[in-house]
Amino acid sequence: VFLLKYIDFEFVTLDYSLGDSPNGLEILKFMHENQKYPKHLNIHSNHIEGRQLMRKYAEEHFPSDVLITTNMLEK
Question: CB–CB of 41/14 below 8 Å?
Answer without folding.
Answer: yes
